[in-house]
Amino acid sequence: MKDPFPIAPVPWLSQAVQPLAESLNLPALPLHIHEIIFSLVLYTVVYYPISPLLSSRLFPSHYKTLSLRTRINWDAHVVSLVQSLLISSLAIWVLYADDELRSMSREERVWGYNGGTGMIQAMFAGYFVWDLVMSLLHFDVFGPGALAHAVCALTVYIIGYVSTRSKMDGGGRSGRSCLISLCPGFTDSSEAQIRRSASSQ
Fold first, then answer.
1. Which residue has the higher pLDDT, 110 or 189?
2. pLDDT tens digits along 143-174
């Protein structure tokens, strides 16, 4: 499936993130960086001003009496709800609309790549970038557990853009990242799928 996101990748943005993507072995990241930023902005706007406005209208006697700490937590939960509804809806749609995904083997579905699943992954990554920023800004509200969750979840979704291609290690041997050695099903065909997707956009 070609990436169904309605906004095409922004060339200068993709080029700007390319060196970082290459150094971290994340070849599909430049194809989806605009989606990550879009979702980060979307969740930020849901957090403020949408959640406070909507919450104060839907629950006027309750929301307005909350302490600042509790409002921050409330608004973050509204963002979480919006994110879960959006991602679940998009993921179900991709599962039913993506003929390429249905034709993949089990291993290709787990370790492979296509534009639809890359978009879903970008929407998750954007949410966890937002979550990381909120956990840092409001550490006193959310605490170390939320910060650790944000870091770990963001890492998991960014790792999804990884490639099997690796650079030569210091000893001159061809090496694979420790992630790839833990995930032997991720094959060179996954990288070929990323290249096909990039060339079709």
1. 110
2. 999 999 999 999 999 988 885 433 323 322 22
Specify the pTM: 0.82
The region, left, alpha or beta by phi > 0 then psi within -120 to 50, assigned to residue 176 is beta
Which H, E and C letters describe 112-153, residue by residue? CCCHHHHHHHHHHHHHHHHHHHHHHHCHHHHHHHHHHHHHHH
Map tokens 């065909």 to a residue. 189
- Tokens 């006193």 belong to which residue? 140
26: left (phi over 0), alpha (psi -120 to 50) or beta: beta
How is residue 36 annotated by DSSP? H
How far is it, in rounded angstroms, from Cα 160 to Cα 122?
A: 10
Neighbours of 93 (CB within 10 A): 13
Structure tokens at 53: 């406005």
Q: What is the mean pLDDT of residues 17-44?
A: 95
Work out the mean pLDDT of the chain and round it to a whole number.
85
The pLDDT score that the predictor gives to residue 182 is 37
Written as one letter, the residue type at 76 is A
Q: How many angstroms separate the CA atoms of 110 and 90, rounded? A: 18
